[in-house]
Amino acid sequence: MKTYRLRSLAMTKGQNSFVELCLEFDGKRAFVVWDSVPVGHYQFKARLEIDPALLQKAQDHSWDYVYRGSLVLPRPEHN
Questions:
Q1: Between these two residues, 12 and 44, which has the higher pLDDT value?
Q2: pLDDT in tens, 52-79
Q3: In 14, 41, 51, 53, which residue has its Cα 20 to 30 A from 27's Cα atom?
Q4: Residue 8 sits in which domain range?
């Protein structure tokens, strides 16, 4: 699966900030990879589904896409 770089506005500790995450597509669905853990020959990923209609190809070469929506990332203390 090809991985792209994504930049988005995210809510962190009650404040908005920009984050850069990995982006993956599964058919017409889009996911950001919040965390990834290698276990032996496997790679476990925590993915959050996002609205692909809010993705825009980036003009900057630092990342591939910009997400025009707002992400609310899970915090470990809330699990």
A1: 44
A2: 999 999 887 788 999 988 787 766 665 5
A3: 41
A4: 3-70
pLDDT value at residue 15:
72
How far apart (Å, rounded) are the C-alpha atoms in residues 79 and 77?
A: 6
* 10 part of a folded domain: yes
Tell whether 77 is covered by a domain.
no
Q: How many whole angstroms separate alpha carbon 30 and alpha carbon 47?
A: 9
Show the tokens assigned to 19: 């984050």
Which residues are paired to 30 by β-bridges?
25, 50
Which sign does the torsion angle of CA 41, 32, 16, 9 carry? positive
**Domain total for the chain?**
1
| pLDDT (0 to 100) of residue 28 | 93
